[in-house]
TrEMBL record:
<feature type="domain" description="Lytic transglycosylase MltA">
    <location>
        <begin position="153"/>
        <end position="310"/>
    </location>
</feature>
<dbReference type="Pfam" id="PF03562">
    <property type="entry name" value="MltA"/>
</dbReference>
<dbReference type="InterPro" id="IPR036908">
    <property type="entry name" value="RlpA-like_sf"/>
</dbReference>
<keyword id="KW-0961">Cell wall biogenesis/degradation</keyword>
<dbReference type="InterPro" id="IPR026044">
    <property type="entry name" value="MltA"/>
</dbReference>
<dbReference type="InterPro" id="IPR010611">
    <property type="entry name" value="3D_dom"/>
</dbReference>
<keyword id="KW-0456">Lyase</keyword>
<protein>
    <recommendedName>
        <fullName>peptidoglycan lytic exotransglycosylase</fullName>
        <ecNumber>4.2.2.n1</ecNumber>
    </recommendedName>
</protein>
<keyword id="KW-0732">Signal</keyword>
<dbReference type="Pfam" id="PF06725">
    <property type="entry name" value="3D"/>
</dbReference>
<dbReference type="InterPro" id="IPR005300">
    <property type="entry name" value="MltA_B"/>
</dbReference>
<feature type="signal peptide">
    <location>
        <begin position="1"/>
        <end position="19"/>
    </location>
</feature>
């Protein structure tokens, strides 16, 4: 989705705007459909202990180079039946792609997933399926950090009209991706995004230039949002819903990004002392931005990244695998450390993040071993939970049985 986002909340997620009440909206009228302004405050939980192991070295570029140790028996883990059932459904969805993907973690091969995927189609009990088809491994020290994301719903319109003044842009035709590996072998895997100007390849317009209207009038206006603050948060999420004036819904998803660096202004605001203790949730950040609109706009523009959208008409929202993501079952992860499509067990210090999840997405801020972003769906509860999600604990990756023995035996991996 992000997902591009994806997109993390808590300290990594932030947004801003130039108005508390967008132009054309009567004072007192709701600017958004969802107004769950308080982040959910769950009860505390004690995570399971990690398996003693060193932290990932700074040079680690994959799970295999970070270090892999055996985890506990899956049957011994506190797996909730309902969560396991959601994860099984998500895993089934991922299976066709999982078997075809090139796993860059260094742990598995596409053929390794054939047996678990076949078993998943026949499974009638999710907990039994996971405990018999997989083994748990721990990547490096297993110390996990999880944030949350959701599918926001904001007010929007297909045409510009009073109360809907902020453009939602489609991907511009002059936004170009260049694979540098085509020009030099030592640059394989590196890509640059920009545009051509006077015969030279230059960076694409940053957030400030776009908000000041450099793309205006070029037919890129996919829709118009009522609240620029909410639109920015939707950009961080990578997809969302526009509630149209007639009550219908237009779903939009990530199409591209301008290639400029992403700055998590939530952390930026915290480092500058702008957020008091307990204000570092999405809701706290938004409240500050609404109360300090001019300063908020300046802070926002320090995040030069800008997301472009496309209308979604099929199932969704879609994750990085191009497949629909599942509320309370999908996590975004770094594909260098978690095979996309693989199950992960989280034991965190807040119970709503605990259980089996499936890595079906990625995110710009989701980097490194044992870093996850949990997906909560749409609506007030999802917004409240994701907005305050900041959990620490233990992560175990579930891989096909026999994976660890093969790795220890020195058999080749991708």
């Amino acid at each position: 989705m992000r997902t591009r986002g994806g997109v993390a909340l808590a300290l990594l997620l932030a947004s801003c705007s130039n108005a508390i009440v967008p132009g054309g909206i009567e004072p007192g009228a709701p600017a958004v459909v969802e107004l769950a302004d308080a982040a959910r405050r769950p009860t505390a939980a004690k995570p399971l202990d990690t398996v003693p192991a060193p932290a990932a070295p700074a040079t680690a570029v994959s799970a295999a180079t970070a270090g892999v140790v055996a985890g506990p028996a899956i049957a011994s883990l506190p797996v909730d039946s309902a969560a396991a059932a959601r994860a099984l459904a998500a895993f089934r969805t991922s299976c066709p792609s999982l078997q075809k993907r090139n796993d860059v973690t260094g742990l598995t091969r596409g053929s390794d997933w054939a047996r678990p995927c076949a078993d998943a189609q026949r499974a009638s009990d999710a907990r039994t399926f996971f405990s018999t088809s997989f083994e748990a491994v721990q990547i490096a020290d297993g110390r996990a950090f999880a944030t949350g994301y959701y599918e926001p719903e904001i007010r929007g319109a297909r045409t510009r009209q009073r109360g809907y003044e902020t453009p939602v842009y489609a991907k511009p035709a002059d936004l170009i991706d260049i694979d540098m590996g085509l020009f030099a072998s030592d640059l394989a895997g590196r890509k640059f995004r920009g545009r051509v100007e006077d015969g030279a390849f230059v960076p694409y317009h940053d957030r400030t230039r776009i908000e000041e209207g450099v793309l205006a009038g070029k037919g890129l206006e996919l829709a118009w949002a009522a609240d620029p603050i909410e639109l920015f948060f939707l950009q961080v999420q990578g997809s969302g819903r526009l509630r149209l004036p007639d009550g219908s819904v237009m779903r939009i998803g990530y199409a591209s990004q301008n290639g400029q660096p992403y700055t998590g202004i939530g952390k930026l605001m915290r480092d500058r002392g702008l957020l008091q203790p307990g204000q570092a949730s999405m809701q706290g950040i938004m409240a500050y931005l609404r109360a300090n609109s001019a300063e908020g706009q300046a802070i926002m523009r320090e995040n030069k990244s800008y997301v472009f959208f496309r209308e979604l008409t099929g199932p969704g929202p879609l994750g990085a695998m191009g497949l629909p993501v599942t509320p309370r079952a999908t996590v975004a992860a770094d594909p260098r450390f978690v095979p996309l499509g693989a199950p992960v067990f989280l034991s965190m210090d807040r119970p709503d993040a605990n259980g089996i999840w499936v890595a079906q997405d990625t995110g710009g801020a989701i980097k490194g071993a044992n870093r996850f972003d949990t997906f909560w769906g749409a609506g007030d509860e999802a917004r409240s939970t994701a907005g305050g999600m900041s959990a620490r604990g233990t992560a175990f990756l579930l891989v096909p049985r026999g994976t660890l023995a093969r790795l220890r035996g020195g058999q080749p991996t991708p």
